[in-house]
Design brief:
Layout (H helix, E strand, L loop, with lengths): L3 H24 L7 H5 L1 E4 L5 E4 L3 H7 L10 H11 L13 H15 L6 H37 L2
Antiparallel strand pairs: 1-2
Helix pairs in contact: 1-6, 4-5
Length: about 160
């Protein structure tokens, strides 16, 4: 089990990573329903292992989609269209059905792909140096405490 000082430093750093990850998603316009952004979180266990967790949609954002691949499933795209409130139009300016718009978007994704956005890796890379500094500071505090306790024990008759 690690000292609470070290765990506190890890938690502070992990919170910065989560904040950075959320801002990267927002800056890159990867927010439809907000479910992915709201699901990004961290967990630090008593051994100091840090885990970053997020919704399954994060897999698709992180991996992207290769160009020239098969058509994506229509149900998630139709749902995304409704969440975004997108209404397509034809060449004459008339509204088209959501089913037609779903097909057009699916075809564009199959043809062009979706560029991957490794938002967690980017957030961790952005703040990894801060972790080293925070751990050095917290470990120094722990060592000072240990030395003070050892000196206090020696000073007692």
């Amino acid at each position: 089990m690690l000292d609470p000082e070290v765990i506190k430093a890890e938690q502070a750093w992990a919170q910065k990573v989560v904040t950075n990850a959320k801002s990267i998603l927002i800056q890159n316009r990867k927010v439809a329903s907000g479910r992915l952004v709201n699901s990004v979180r961290y967990n630090v266990n008593s051994q100091g292992k840090i885990s970053f967790l997020y919704d399954i949609d994060g897999k698709w954002v992180t991996q992207g989609r290769r160009r020239g691949s098969r058509f994506p499933p229509p149900a998630p795209i139709s749902k995304w269209i409704k969440e975004k409130g997108i209404q397509g139009r034809d060449k004459k300016g008339r509204f088209i059905s959501n089913k037609s718009l779903t097909f057009l978007i699916s075809r564009a994704i199959a043809r062009d792909g979706i560029k991957p956005l490794p938002f967690m890796k980017m957030a961790i890379d952005k703040s990894i140096k801060q972790l080293g500094k925070a751990l050095k500071t917290s470990l120094a505090k722990v060592e000072v405490k240990r030395w003070k306790n050892a000196i206090a024990k020696l000073a007692k008759p």
